[in-house]
Amino acid sequence: QVQLVESGGGSVQAGGSLRLSCVASGNFVGGNVMAWYRQTPGKEREMVAMITSGGVTDYRGAVKGRFFISRDNGKKAVYLRMDNSKPEDTGVYYCHTQTDGIDIWGLGTQVTVSS
Prior knowledge:
Elements: E1 3-7, E2 10-13, E3 18-25, E4 34-39, E5 46-51, E6 57-59, E7 67-72, E8 77-82, E9 91-99, E10 102-105, E11 109-114
């Protein structure tokens, strides 16, 4: 069974940077797509960024040019660097992957951006 553990959340002022990390354990297959999602109260969880095992990335429009996703297949890790953060980036950030067609989520890490 695959487990995902996020870290690196916290509080930052608008314009600041944060780096989130997610490490997979268990029967994680390095070929899986990995992604970061975020959720704010009253809203559905939304995809922020995703990366394939080969390094192809995709981003939500609102974060393009500010957020950068990367991964280290050897460490079974995926990262999200958040630059020029905005108050609307506030939320709980979740790491996600799929294995055997089953969604795997971490417990999330809180990010708060103050104006």
